[in-house]
Specification:
binds prephenic acid; alpha/beta; methyltransferase activity; disordered N terminus; 36% helix; 278 residues; Rossmann fold; Methyltransf_25; two-stranded antiparallel sheet; binds S-adenosylmethionine
Length: 278
Amino acid sequence: MSFGFASPDNANLNTTGPDPMGRVENQQPPMKRDRIYSLPHGRVGDFTFDEQVVEVFPDMIARSVPGYASILSMIEQLAGRFVQPHTNVYDLGCSLGAATLLMQRQVPRDCTIHAVDNAPAMIDRLRLKLQATLPDPNQGTVEVHQADVCEFPMTNASFVVLNLTLQFIATEQRATLLNAVADALVPGGALLVSEKICFEDAKQQSLLNDLHHDFKRANGYSDLEIAQKRTALENRLLPETMKTHVDRLYAAGFDCVVPWFQCFNFVSILAVKAGAAP
Ligand SMILES: C[S@@+](CC[C@H](N)C(=O)[O-])C[C@H]1O[C@@H](n2cnc3c(N)ncnc32)[C@H](O)[C@@H]1O
Ligand SMILES: O=C(O)C(=O)C[C@]1(C(=O)O)C=C[C@@H](O)C=C1
């Protein structure tokens, strides 16, 4: 089945590489296709961000998350708006630094972007990627940290990104993490949270789940791949409702909480701290 939209599949991602947004550019190395769940697994283990996943991650996320490239593009735009001079930017659960590298284009040299992830394979690959990039003296610097975002100290932050990361944190730890982000933000600073969500209404849940699976099928995943990945994520990716997210962000002390993006069961929310930027 093929649709008219520019899916990662019809963008021919096998022969050319992605830029940080997952768009096609010729100067990048070829992106490896995700075939992790293409053959039957005797027992499907819990999903982990290990070497095997890291190897195919850009292809996997682009073919699995509807709107991923759009969200990344807007993260760059939002960084341009919210990052304040002499502050820190945090990319929590940075993976291979897709958001970090886009934000860096908007972040002045007196700022530091802290790219944080607890998966050693992700961090090793990100460090190699950064070593291969010539630093631009006009842009902010990137510091890479292999750490648990729930324990990572944050201070003097103007923009914080949790792009598809909160969903992997134990639900009982989420409020503490969001409170820490709200405390670390300067007045007028902002947090962006992108998540897979669930729905209280059974019909909405079933419809958007089906539409997500149609999206995956249209991007070349088989029913077996979809089913096995679903099993692998069952205890690892724990979606919550939009109301749970919004209420918890207000409870953390944010002044304005607004869902700005939704594609099927994936959303992105912007939460702004009160006060004017100096
Ligand atoms: C779906 S990926 C995030 C994608 C990435 N933000 C992007 O925009 O391309 C989730 C990431 O969160 C990381 N992660 C999950 N739990 C974490 C934790 N407690 N501390 C740090 N990183 C975590 C995983 O290792 C993984 O790289
Ligand atoms: O929900 C799914 O089926 C997914 O594959 C989603 C998802 C995510 O949202 O992070 C899960 C694991 C990978 O990181 C890439 C995509």
